[in-house]
């Protein structure tokens, strides 16, 4: 019987009511009295020197409040980067300045140059036409392989356009080289992990307001982590002390990573609201989002996997070029390194691993974490290479994977790439996925497809990811400029209901429901009596926000810690009221009882006593019932699973249709199965989108060719099947109080290789061994043609 | 500025608009009905879908002046008279057909139009109908389920919840 309440129940989401009735409050829904609008004039060339810029006519235009260029911003900082990666020779990465508005040079299409504040957006847009701007165009470099030759240079600090050249694990290098030299067989694969545009449906937006009477700023912004924005923007960019700066991330319409970072626009909007003495709103239109939201992926990789005669993995060597774009976004440097290199063991016991990553500046939009961030790139390499290896070795791809799995009795498992897996069972999810996918019936379905002139393929991929970022001591050693704790305050109000203030932020994940389930379970109360508050620095003590599938594992654990402290304190108060010793008080189902007696008191009486007591032992127990905790995880969490899918390819047109998709995931304990399954569905759609539809494309001059939904293929309903999602094979995380691992990114990590493996399986009879994503009809058709000839 | 009058969610409204003012701007900025969203600038995402004279329309593709005298319905007008969720809205909550909620008003409005035309849509019908509505969060699985369930409820059938 499924639970109908608390942990494990598919409680319906409380936030849905406001979203379903049009009462959500997204940033663009916020309007302040007297508000003006901001329009950014952006570069339409990828690389160039600004030779003249005259804004006087724009300044005089009707409805214009102010026009600003970088000259007006002197004294302000650049947009900071939050993670430092060290070069293989020990030098710090190259960290060029990322100005708010272009300073003398533009480096990508979309680089903001002029900001116009006007009474209406239309007036601002009209005035932009009056700006006299001349840019002396320079050659642009888009292809990383060209960029590292250093002909066209973006930043003087990086004359070869290399941000860093990183090796991991450096001590393994010689042993890996030797193992590859001596191996029975080495499978080699070169692949591209295509550049994606995150495309949260709500475009980024910001509203800034300055209260001159109190010398206080408020910024409403589309952020996954308002405290991080307050910290970075206040301290490094605008020099506004935190007690004078409130950052609110209200309802946010999806993030997928793209709303983690501190962006130039929100800093400018905050600053300019004081400068013009009016609240100012900026809302990106979609084209602007395409050319200014941080993009994802964009790796070019060569992988070599060495095996013995039986197919046991002996060593893995990979080298990657990772695109940083024109400037360093907040977390950009850590994605291809610490979130990628450390995952190269995958689900397998490969004893020796070495990777080299060169991060490269190009004349493109900055690249940073996008759902999965580094882990999809690692998984894609491994699972594609293993499939190719299986074919080359004549071993069944399932069997080859199974043979190399880390086995259930090997935990905790120390990988050769720094991380230690606490728990898992990869055979279990593999078996489950194969069963749910009815793999036995595949041959029959394949024959049926063939009868209709279609090629059917079966694809399998395993994945493991590291979530719950992050153990502060570990990430500190890895270059994070801040520890990544999470904070939570739990306040029991005088009449017993509960307000929870969490540093995690919900932008679709349903925290208001899930977190309430956890608290209600612990306190033995109705979920409806627990309110979850998030997204406002003036209400929540601190927070590092939501990304990397960390909210429940890290943010939820902070809440659990606070609730435990509350219960401990409430027991003291109950002991006083029941005239018993604290050690004799037990708490269950919302009741305090003196052990071995029928003396009991309910939660409400204890809560009321905590605030408005008579004859209270105030010297022993502080009144009030509110606790704050910070949680620092002991390790990452390691969700893992197996994805199996079937595709049908039309050899005449190259069209790929996804016929079925099965996901068997191990997320540890699950608080709300309905929400978890929804997270997997969304991740799968993004991963399948990456595999067959989505590709951000630039021409050789750095023009962004895919800058709208007419050119960038977003997955539509008709592109996807119903998914089969299972999370019954779970091994609870061993080091957080809820035993949870995180589920937000898995779908996007495991699905691209599963799809590509299926397509290659379908085409293998034609001699096709690899196609780079996205597997568009044209690419598939060309691959078939090329293999035939 | 020109005066425009229409009926929105059963109420007569009017306002002064420019020739270039889109219906979605009039609803959001003129009337404060911010449930209708803007997710793109090329008429593809469907976050802005409303009903004009009973049919679903992308409110970012028509001018406010073009709706003179029209009956307009937005997400704010979809609940039952007592404020409880209407059948389609309730099905979206029941089947987890929304995550961030940004595409949701357009999805609900679009679904309502589908179900007024086709009481018994197949899964394929629903997926094809949603061609003009993009969701980045749900992978559509639960949106399709919600709409199928709402159709069944409207036909008077009982559907098991998730
Ligand atoms: S706003 Fe995207 S279709 Fe109307
Ligand atoms: S629920 Fe977020 S875009 Fe659909």
TrEMBL record, chain A:
GO molecular function term, any single one: iron ion binding
Pfam families: Ald_Xan_dh_C (PF01315), MoCoBD_1 (PF02738), MoCoBD_2 (PF20256)
All residue ranges annotated as the Aldehyde oxidase/xanthine dehydrogenase a/b hammerhead domain in the record: 21-139
InterPro entries tied to this protein: Ald_Oxase/Xan_DH_a/b, Ald_Oxase/Xan_DH_a/b_sf, Ald_Oxase/xanthine_DH-like, AldOxase/xan_DH_MoCoBD1, AldOxase/xan_DH_MoCoBD2, AldOxase/xan_DH_Mopterin-bd_sf
Keywords: Molybdenum, Oxidoreductase
Protein name as it appears in the record: Xanthine dehydrogenase family protein molybdopterin-binding subunit
Record organism: Thermohalobaculum xanthum
UniProtKB/TrEMBL annotation, chain B:
Domain 2Fe-2S ferredoxin-type: 2-78
The protein's name: (2Fe-2S)-binding protein
GO molecular function: 2 iron, 2 sulfur cluster binding; metal ion binding; oxidoreductase activity
Name of one Pfam family that matches: Fer2_2
Signal peptide span: none
Keywords, ordered alphabetically: 2Fe-2S, Iron, Iron-sulfur, Metal-binding, Oxidoreductase
InterPro entries the UniProt entry points to: 2Fe-2S-bd, 2Fe-2S-bd_dom_sf, 2Fe-2S_ferredoxin-like_sf, 2Fe-2S_ferredoxin-type, Beta-grasp_dom_sf, Diverse_Oxidoreductases
Superkingdom in the source lineage: Bacteria
